[in-house]
Amino acid sequence: MAYVINKETCLGCGACVAQCGQGAIEEAGDKYRIKQEKCTDCGACVGFCPVQAISKEN
């Protein structure tokens, strides 16, 4: 399962972007999204989201 960013919860703060060593997080309008083809499922971004908008996709 891959990590995803919940668009409803995401504040668009960008705190997760600098944590991604793969460059898998990109802007999507005023929010962010994870490019699945680049994500290695390391989870480095998860702990830096102030509203817990990043989780494993079900």
Automatic annotation (TrEMBL):
<dbReference type="InterPro" id="IPR050572">
    <property type="entry name" value="Fe-S_Ferredoxin"/>
</dbReference>
<keyword id="KW-0479">Metal-binding</keyword>
<feature type="domain" description="4Fe-4S ferredoxin-type">
    <location>
        <begin position="30"/>
        <end position="58"/>
    </location>
</feature>
<keyword id="KW-0408">Iron</keyword>
<dbReference type="GO" id="GO:0051539">
    <property type="term" value="F:4 iron, 4 sulfur cluster binding"/>
</dbReference>
<keyword id="KW-0411">Iron-sulfur</keyword>
<dbReference type="InterPro" id="IPR017896">
    <property type="entry name" value="4Fe4S_Fe-S-bd"/>
</dbReference>
<dbReference type="Pfam" id="PF14697">
    <property type="entry name" value="Fer4_21"/>
</dbReference>
<feature type="domain" description="4Fe-4S ferredoxin-type">
    <location>
        <begin position="1"/>
        <end position="26"/>
    </location>
</feature>
<dbReference type="GO" id="GO:0046872">
    <property type="term" value="F:metal ion binding"/>
</dbReference>
<dbReference type="InterPro" id="IPR017900">
    <property type="entry name" value="4Fe4S_Fe_S_CS"/>
</dbReference>
<keyword id="KW-0004">4Fe-4S</keyword>
<protein>
    <submittedName>
        <fullName>Ferredoxin</fullName>
    </submittedName>
</protein>
